[in-house]
Design a protein that fits this description.
The structure is a single chain. Helix content is about 35%, strand content about 25%. The chain is α+β, with helices and mostly antiparallel strands. Among the domains are: about 5-105, OB fold (Dihydrolipoamide Acetyltransferase, E2P) (Beta Barrel), CATH 2.40.50; about 120-155. The protein has a five-stranded mixed barrel with strand order 1-2-3-5-4. The radius of gyration is 27 Å and the shape is globular.
């Protein structure tokens, strides 16, 4: 299991061994050392894969964008001059000890940081679209607003009771309605047939 999130790895964890899980945002091969930007809902962290660990390095060579990975490694300070002030984890990096591919991925149809995607493309690849930072922020904001409303209502003595007839429908509900309607039509057809048969006799 993960011990922290990628975007929360900072100088407070220097020297510690952590377990991270996330998506390979980018992979770069710099003269035999492989760098992987690992991403989750909290942000990015740079992972360094050294060839000294042959089995791990071989796995890293096969990693591509959007592979789902589990990485165990030691947090260390980045070399001077390579810090990234735009990231919480920008002053540190993770020296990879173990790398496991939880789920490979085909080549993504677009880059997640592309802001010029058409609505059709985004809807066609909705699973990928929801991984984009902007969409992640929207989902988290929606969750927090809903939680604040629930906290307020709970503090004032309200009870949350599900009322399916008043909430939004689901595909399953529509299927049930269709089945009921089909059954009703079939029943009506049989009833009419019986009446016709009775009258003719």
């Amino acid at each position: 299991m993960r011990t922290t999130y990628c975007g929360l790895v900072s100088e407070t964890l220097l020297g510690q061994t952590v377990t991270l899980m996330g998506w390979a945002h980018r992979r770069r091969d710099h003269g035999g050392v492989i760098f992987i930007d690992l991403r989750d809902r909290e942000g990015l962290v740079q992972v360094v894969c050294d060839p000294d660990r042959a089995e791990m390095f071989k796995a890293a060579e096969g990693v591509r964008n959007e592979f789902c990975l589990k990485i165990v490694g030691k947090v260390r300070a980045r070399p001077a001059g390579t810090e990234n002030a735009n990231l919480v984890s920008g002053k540190v990096e993770l020296l990879c000890h173990e790398l496991e591919v939880l789920n490979p991925s085909v080549t993504p149809p677009f880059q997640l940081d592309d802001d010029n995607l058409s609505e059709t493309t985004r809807l066609t690849h909705r699973v990928l679209d929801l991984r984009r930072p902007a969409m992640q922020k929207n989902l988290i904001l929606r969750y927090r607003v809903a939680m604040e409303v629930r906290k307020f209502l709970d503090a004032n003595g309200f009870i949350d009771i599900e009322t399916p007839m008043l909430t939004k429908s689901t595909p399953e509900a529509r299927a049930t309605t269709s089945c009921r309607a089909a059954s009703t039509r079939a029943c009506s057809s049989r009833c009419r047939s019986r009446r016709s048969c009775s009258s003719s006799c």
